[in-house]
Amino acid sequence: MASLTSLASREEYTGLDGDGDKGPALHQRTRIGRLDLELVEPHRAFTCSWKRTSSIHGASYALVFPLTGCVAFSQDGRVGIARAGEYVLLSELAFYELSTDKAARFLVLRIPAAELRGRLVSIEDHVSRRFKPNEQMTRLLAGMIGSVAELFIELPAPNPQALATEVISFVALTIGSEDRGAATDVRNARYHLRRRIVDFIEIHLGDQSLSPKKIAASSRISLSYLYSLFTDNETTVSQFVQTKRLQRAYEILVADPKGHRTVSEVAYEVGFKNVSHFSRCFSRHFKVAPRDVRQAPEAAPQPGPVTRAAEPNGSSSPRLASSRRAFGSPYWDVHKQELRETV
Predict the structure, then answer these.
(1) SS3 assignment, position 262
(2) What is the mean pLDDT of residues 199-221?
(3) Fewer CB within 10 Å, N- or C-terminus of the chain?
């Protein structure tokens, strides 16, 4: 079983070269709404370990995208390699380790754990790449994240919360499209049952009488078994339904910049019975009031200076190129195919 080579803090990097030098790493970081995006260019092989986050409320999932070279990962006894054009999902709820070759450059997108768990009940099943990714969706996702980094790693996004919502939705869609193989064992059977339940919830979000009892009856299972399906992700059925309703409301409000529908109408449309309760939950979840979502955001401050790790001789690494070629993904330009709606 694989184990981590160190329990270093997030900012400590240990070189993998034979001479044991510290590998200089160059970072650019930005925050887009609820997301943290980081570009790492180590200039030489290195390894780093992330400490476990004890609370799910402060934890994130790290989505790692190699741009050049490859990135090796290790978590929960699973090891693997992600190459340019691929991704790997890691969880801050357990120790994990990344290491690279000398040619590697990669992006790390950190998504609050509650955001993905509110979209995919079985998100933990996809950590450390247990399943085969969908090739077409992976190309689109890698291209989109590369483009977001190219445009906003140094400049503020015009509507960061709306952009974060769209990115998280597409990440969940891509992860959910991974090939789990034949559904023959109990774990996969539970996965497909949870998928049917999530589909039922999404279809009936506007039903104010939607309850755990009604959800359980739709799949002909007991209430206790329904609850067990959600405790796998340390959430409850009611919390999951509320998160889905808030996400749907956000999407409706962002898509209605001229305010054709009032906040009250949107609240009732997504299944809330009380507008004040909806506003409190919405503001707590998205850190912005429902009425402010459609307003043009004020100019955000420029991100801080690029962090540079010192070279062994005391000099600093050169600044990362900000041109298009720094983030360009060959998949984005080469595979411009017609998209068809799929079930």
Answers:
(1) coil
(2) 91
(3) C
